[in-house]
């Protein structure tokens, strides 16, 4: 990031670089963007190594559609589009607005907020009792927006995590400061590699919209299995609780657990992820609203 460090102006606003633009963006008022695209399918460039992440560049317009639109992934830069290093948007979360700086594009697809972030935030607010007193780890944090929201809303003990990439970590730190938070703990981790923390003690692992790279499902499950099966939380953070599902029924659950939401339609490939979970000895339960509970048997 060229040695950039964030700062604040006298009026309290975060100072923007010349290549940044401040945009007020609201999820409820997002409209369909009609732009030409050379392809409707992901263009992935494979790299060597079992845990290397594929590269994909996504347009902002491709991520947000009206409810009636087919929710397909639109990939590639539109012809003649003007590139920006960053864009800063004000996003509406339950009970607050957050100023989030996003990359205009990022080779690891950690550039923009995904639709599942907002719906998952709503779901977590409805089930906030499960967060009390728990240590939380977010996988695939991207911009860090969801973790920042949870920290500000509920003062939770939360750690962000994403691919081993300096720019991602620095951008999450920037977004923390932009929203008057101390920088959250962060873990750089490539799925499938040895996890940097040998004795994981997070009670809840969360993620939203991370099922993009089908080839990475086995590596994601490998990481997830380690965190859940090697959990060494304190005795006060073990035991059972209950989550209210979509029908209003109280579902008994135990710690540690993985809660995942996603809003991207990825055809039938999502089944492959759950098959990998079951092969690894993990239980999968749909809680409704495209939120899934995954835990050890």
Explain how this protein is built.
- The chain is an alpha/beta fold.
- It has one domain: Rossmann fold (3-Layer(aba) Sandwich), CATH 3.40.50.150.
- It has six helices and twelve strands.
- It has helices at residues 60-63, 115-126, 145-154, 166-178, 217-229, 270-279; strands at 22-24, 86-93, 96-103, 135-138, 157-162, 186-188, 204-208, 240-244, 250-254, 257-261, 282-288, 291-296.
- Helix 5 (217-229) packs across helix 6 (270-279).
- The longest helix is centred in the middle third of the chain and has 13 residues, at 166-178.
- Mean pLDDT is 76; it is low at 1-84.
Total beta-strand segments:
12
Radius of gyration: 19 Å
* Largest sheet: number of strands, sense, barrel closure: 7 strands, mixed
What is the CATH topology classification name? Rossmann fold
**Overall mean confidence score, pLDDT:** 76
Task: Report strand order across the widest sheet.
Answer: 6-5-4-7-10-12-11
By oligomeric state, this entry counts as single chain
């Amino acid at each position: 990031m060229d040695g950039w460090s964030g700062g604040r102006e006298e009026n309290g606003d975060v100072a923007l670089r010349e290549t940044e633009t401040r945009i007020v963006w609201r999820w409820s008022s997002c409209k369909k963007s009609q732009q030409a695209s050379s392809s409707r399918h992901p263009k992935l460039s494979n790299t060597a190594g079992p845990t290397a992440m594929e590269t994909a560049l996504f347009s902002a317009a491709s991520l947000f559609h009206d409810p009636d639109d087919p929710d397909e992934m639109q990939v590639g830069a539109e012809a003649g589009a003007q590139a920006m290093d960053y864009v800063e948007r004000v996003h509406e979360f339950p009970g607050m607005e957050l100023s989030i700086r996003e990359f205009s594009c990022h080779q690891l697809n950690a550039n923009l907020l995904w639709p599942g972030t907002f719906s998952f935030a709503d779901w977590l607010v409805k089930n906030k009792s499960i967060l009390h007193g728990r240590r939380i780890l977010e996988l695939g944090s991207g911009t860090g927006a969801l973790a920042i929201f949870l920290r500000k809303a509920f003062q939770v003990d939360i750690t962000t995590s994403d691919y081993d990439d300096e720019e991602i970590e620095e951008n999450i730190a920037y977004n923390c400061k932009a929203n008057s938070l101390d920088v959250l703990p962060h873990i750089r981790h490539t799925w499938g590699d040895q996890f940097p923390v040998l004795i994981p003690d997070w009670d809840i692992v969360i993620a939203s919209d991370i099922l993009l790279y089908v080839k990475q499902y086995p590596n994601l499950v490998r990481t997830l299995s380690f965190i859940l099966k090697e959990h060494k939380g304190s005795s006060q953070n073990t035991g059972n609780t209950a989550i209210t599902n979509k029908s209003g029924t109280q579902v008994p659950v135990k710690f540690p657990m993985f809660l995942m939401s996603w809003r991207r339609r990825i055809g039938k490939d999502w089944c492959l992820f759950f098959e990998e979970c079951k092969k690894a000895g993990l239980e999968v339960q749909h809680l409704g609203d495209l939120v899934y509970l995954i835990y050890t048997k």
